Amino acid sequence: MQIQSHQNIRQVAIVTQQEKFYQRYKDLLEPHSFTISKISRQDLRQSISQSNYDLLVIDNEQKSSTNFEIEKYIRQQISPCHIISIGQKAIPELNHGTLYISLPSNTRQIIFDQIISILEKVNLREKNQLELASMLLHDIRSPLNSLVGYLELLINGTFGKLPNGHTNIVEKAIDMSDYALDLIEELSEVFKFEQKFFAVQKESINFSEMLDTLLAMIWIKADQKNLKIKRSIPADIPPISGDDFQIQRLTSNILLNAINHTPQNSTISIQVKTNDKKFARISVTDDGEGVPEDRLPLLFDKYYRLQHNSSPKSGQGLGLYICRIITEAHGGKIWAENNQPKGLTIHFTLPLEL
């Protein structure tokens, strides 16, 4: 019998080594017309990074430390997916939007169907909220652009020369409006990703040439702090395979983060290596205060902000989160390490053109 479904849950993965477990829960899920895949524990990381699963059914009937490593990894995923754990109690502190449900091994079909129905309703509610938020962001952008346009007419003297002291006020108003537009753009990208509309248009990218263009745009921010930017890029590095706009945005966000957290008269370095024939590793190193070790895994979480005495307090904690979205959308990874004696290095990998 087919069960009527909102189809907010489409892709389901059963994580197990046991064929018997897979067949049992495949039979329980089949009435809902889901696309069902089987994933082994060893393949979980790669499978999740390559597919957008809406629901994971995890075989936790055999208690082991491996189960907790799986759950720890799932917690770090960007795209929220609901989790049904069979055989163990739920573990808190998952991503926003993720439900973690623990069920006994002998769960009956009727109970399982009720759980799926609840998850469908949760997904539908979250989808409607995301769509409303996206529409509001779109509607806000137009009047803000108009506001900036009128302010620029004022400062350019189109309606006459501004009285003394007014120019500075209008300039600050333009800066705040530009900041609001940048924030709206960041939020829009986050909502696109969480609605699974985020896509990359891959092309061949000469990273060295792209970096030249990028540094020409942001050099003034480094110059204001008398920072030197050193680069080490092999002349024979193959082209990157990726979305030119998104990779520029990724690199720009990381460089601006380094500039913001680096003291005056210091150095920022950019290094590119090819660890294998498939990926390039780009590393951006600063001379700042670094990050407490227990906070390093949180740097790329949504809305996470680490405050230093020497760093500005602006921003909503979305810049590095968006870097994570872009990197993982290209099949790469991003992470951070503290330097000795001070400073931070952010590494990210991007696919090479084969």
Lay out the secondary structure.
Elements: E1 11-15, H1 19-29, E2 35-39, H2 44-50, E3 55-59, H3 65-75, E4 82-86, E5 100-103, H4 109-155, H5 166-194, E6 203-205, H6 207-224, E7 228-232, E8 240-242, H7 244-260, E9 267-273, E10 279-285, H8 319-329, E11 334-338, E12 344-351
Helix pairs in contact: 4-5, 6-7, 7-8
Textual characterization of the structure:
- With 354 residues, the protein is an alpha/beta fold.
- The protein folds into 3 domains: 11-107, Rossmann fold (3-Layer(aba) Sandwich), CATH 3.40.50.2300; 126-194; 203-351, 2-Layer Sandwich (Heat Shock Protein 90).
- The protein has 8 helices and 12 strands.
- α6 packs parallel to α7 and α7 packs antiparallel against α8 (319-329).
- It is globular.
Strand order within the widest beta sheet: 2-1-3-4-5
Quick one: biggest sheet?
A: 5 strands, parallel
What is the CATH fold-level name of the largest domain?
Heat Shock Protein 90
Strand content: 15-25%
Give the SSE string. EHEHEHEEHHEHEEHEEHEE
User: So, the CATH homologous superfamily of the largest domain?
Assistant: Histidine kinase-like ATPase, C-terminal domain
Q: Give the C-level CATH assignment of the largest domain.
A: Alpha Beta
Second rung of CATH, namely the architecture of the largest domain: 2-Layer Sandwich
Tell me the distance between the termini. 47 Å
Mean pLDDT figure: 78
Quaternary class: single chain
**Whole-number radius of gyration?**
24 Å
